[in-house]
Design brief:
about 45% helix
Length: about 80
């Protein structure tokens, strides 16, 4: 696992985090594997009907533009 990529991902997620916290939510970096970044939405974001939009339109868009190794973002709480 490339810690440099993980650190870049966490740095970008930290830029998004204040906006999510403003609405009572948060996001946690879980792992990065084969171009896919796994995150877990927390707080108000976890059960929000806009969670998929938050992942694809915000987190995924920013991560794929700032970290070229990331091709997709998946919310792991959906898979549970």
């Amino acid at each position: 696992m490339d810690n440099n990529i993980n650190n870049k991902i966490i740095e970008v997620i930290d830029k998004v985090r204040p906006y999510l916290r403003h609405d009572g939510g948060d996001v946690e970096f879980v792992s990065f594997e084969d171009g896919i970044c796994y995150v877990k939405l927390q707080g108000a974001c976890a059960g929000c009907m806009f969670a998929d939009m938050t992942i694809s339109n915000t987190i995924e868009e920013i991560l794929t533009s700032e970290v070229p190794e990331v091709i997709k973002v998946i919310n792991v709480s959906e898979e549970a």
